Amino acid sequence: MASTWDLPALTALDLHSIALPDDNADEGINVISKYAHHIVSLFQKLHNVKFLELSLEIVEFLSSNQDLILHQPSPFVNLKSLKIYPETVWYYNAPKKVAMSTELKSYLLDSSPRATFTMVLREEIKAQKLMADLRVHLEKKMINPRPKELA
Q1: 59-87, pLDDT tens digit by residue?
Q2: Cβ-Cβ contacts under 8 Å for 84 (sequence gap 6 or more)
Q3: Furthest-apart CA atoms within the chain: distance in Å
Q4: Strand locations in 17-70, DSSP E?
Q5: pTM
Q6: Of the candidates 36, 104, 121, 113, which has an alpha carbon nearest to the alpha carbon of residue 79?
């Protein structure tokens, strides 16, 4: 199906998920390397992308397979914005901080030095959600205050 897409004409991409087939689970690291190779191959066809959004999970995935990008030029020559955000916010075992390797950051941004780079952390999204929940709670309190007891 991907062969019918006009990938060089694509100007915006939101890549947020990797689904590994369950039937390959026994192959372990070989499957992961295989799929990392496909992602890098896809990136090489996206040189006109201006707006790229990747999930933090994909960044973690590519950072653990950075040997695939070490000698590759950055494919994104027209990039204006790179945004990294977590797909899974409440993941129990998720690391507190995710370090994007220098190599991966260079691979993604070197051909577009004026591109803006935004990394949204899980903690930021959690804090925003908690603040929104608190705001709703306070608004309910303002609408329905406790009745004052008669003296």
Answers
A1: 888 888 888 888 889 999 999 999 988 76
A2: 53, 54, 55, 56, 59, 100, 118, 119, 120
A3: 80
A4: 51-55
A5: 0.66
A6: 113
